[in-house]
Amino acid sequence: MRRFILFDIDGTLVWGGPAKGAFCEAMVETYGTVGDIENVSFGGKTDPQIARELLEGHGFARDQIRTGLPALFEGYTSRLEARLGDDPVTVLPGVHALLDALAEVDDIGVALLTGNIVRGAQLKLDSADLWERFTLGSYGSDHEERDELPAIALERARATWRESLTPRDAIVVGDTPSDVSCGQAGGTRTLAVATGNYSFEELSRTGADHVIGDLSDTDEVLSLLTQ
Fold first, then answer.
1. 161, β-bridge pairs
2. What is the distance between the alpha carbons of residues 219 and 200, in angstroms, rounded to a whole number?
3. How far apart are CA 157 and CA 159, in angstroms?
4. Which of 47, 111, 113, 179 is the most exposed place for a label (fewest CB within 10 A)?
């Protein structure tokens, strides 16, 4: 294994679906409030981080938030699973073709690096027939801090593919500045894709190794990922 690719999910591979509504309803069920929804962005964050930021603005202590997380995520994923059949995520342009092309490259591994908890990631990608395309991943359920996720992914990649893999053998692909910064913190290469809520110009200011508009030009993206 020469290199492995770490894909973000929301805004990078897929878009839309019922996740935010399901999450907010589960917040009310678990904590009695959705929290500071007007001032907290969900983009580029882990699910536990989103819950903490929503609730800290309403005076909740960290221990109180942490204690409620298992119930929150049970309520969230049960709602998500029930609704995805009628409101599936949309696969973004070029994703299927790119994953097909990567599957033909023998020395490239394909994995996930996402703020979603693992069950949420599985449900979203299953609804788009994408979950089985990824060998491994690191998730918001592994650590609240996104910057810790590249190291977790590297550990799993070493156990699965090759013990001598290093951070520079990985490339993080994502649609937010947080995706870029977590890759930089983990020592990986980075490719930013402007298919989420951030423009090409905004992503260009992050210092990403590469910035592209979307994943639709398979040959171009494959070249950047495998060079």
1. none
2. 20
3. 5
4. 111
Q: How confident is the model at residue 1 (pLDDT cuts 50, 70, 90)?
A: confident
- Residue 123 phi, psi dihedral angles, 5° rounding: -65, -45
How big, in percent rounded to 5, are the helix, strand and coil portions of the chain?
50, 15, 35
Instruction: Give the whole-angstrom CA distance, residue 76 versus residue 18.
Output: 10
Q: Is 44 left (phi over 0), alpha (psi -120 to 50) or beta?
A: left
**Which residues does residue 190 pair with via DSSP β-bridges, in sequence order?**
172
Closest CA to 142 of 108, 169, 115: 115
DSSP run (H or E) holding 171: strand 170-174
- For the beta sheet containing 136-138, the strands, ordered from the edge strand earlier in sequence to the opposite edge, are 136-138, 108-113, 3-7, 170-174, 189-193, 210-212
The CA distance from 186 to 13, in Å, is: 21
| 3-16+89-226: CATH, from 3.90.980.10, 1.10.3720.10, 3.90.950.10, 3.40.50.1000 | 3.40.50.1000
Q: How far apart are CA 168 and CA 173, in angstroms?
A: 14
Q: What angle do CA 49, 10, 100 make, to 5 degrees?
A: 140
